[in-house]
Every structure is written in structure tokens, then in C-alpha cells.
What we know:
- The chain is mainly alpha-helical.
- It has 6 helices and no strands.
- The radius of gyration is 29 Å and the shape is elongated.
Amino acid sequence: IDDNGGGGCGELDGLYQLLTPAQIKHLAGSAHPPLYAVGRLRAAVERAVGGGGGGAPAHAGTLVAAVGAVDMMVRALTGCERILKTPCPPGYVGVLRAVVIIWLALLPFCFAPIVHWAAIPLSSAIAFLVLAVEELAVQIENPFGLDANDLPLESFCLTVQADALRLVDEARDAEGAEGEAARAGSPGSVQVGAAQ
């Protein structure tokens, strides 16, 4: 975060349009930013839906559903951390690599009686493919980075952000339309009743 509390380079760049500089500073200073963010989200949902924000409390079912959605985010966060922090057992990796090396070393001797000199390029091509699969496996162990084969987390976050902002806008529009209908509907219902 730069001195103005705004747009420096870093992990939190996408939040500058949604959070205040103080909120970003608290998030960046947290020991576990994702869990801090989910905790703040849960508190905001409870305030907004539970009536703590100055409005009337919502139906209990709405509060339960909103808090349940936040809890699903916590479960998703927990699953992602399990993927990130659970390494492959070193013994498994060592044995796998030893078997691959021995197999690749013996492969040309198996092909030589059958294809003669073509065993060298054939074994090289097979070795390239097997080692490429091994390298992909190493990269897939941690899919949450910025490498070419990692998950596109930025686009996931932008999709969630766009959906959340769309839902907020639709809720505001619906509240405005319901308020206008209630104000305009009262005299109309009297007129309809009087016409009968």
C-alpha cells in the first residue's frame, strides 16, 4: 500500500475500488487475510440482515441463509488451504521418480531388438512425454499461483465481484420499485375498491 492508501502493486490491488484504505490496511496486516476477510464479511452480513445497520431486521430464514452462504465460503477456504498446504509425501515422490528414471533408462534396451536405431528417437520422445507429465504433476500440487498452469483466480474473483455487485444493484432496484408500488398502490387500491 502506498502512502495515499491507494493503488500500489500487490495481492490486494483488486480491492481498491471496493474497500476503504483503512480496511485494506487491516486486511494486509492480518496474519491470515482470507479468514479475516470472511470474518468481516460475516459481521457485515449479520449487521445488514439482522438489522444492526439501522434497518429493520430481516426474516430469520434470510439471516440463516446469508450466514450459511458465508459458512460455505469458509468451507471453500478450508478446502483450498488443504490443497495448498498438504504436500505429497516425500517417500512417494522419491519412489515415483526413481521408478521413472529406471524405466526410462531401460526403455531403449527394450526397443533396440525390435526397431534397432529408431529406439533412440522413440525412447527420447517417450521420455519427453513422461517427464512432461511429471512436471505437470509438480505444478498441479500448488494451483494457486501465477504460473501458466495455475487456476485463473483473478478471473474467479472478478466474476464473484461482478455477481455480488449485480445482486446489490438488483436488490436496490427491487426495493425502489416496491417502495414506489406501495406509495402508488395505496390510492389505486382505494379507487379499485370504490369502483366496485
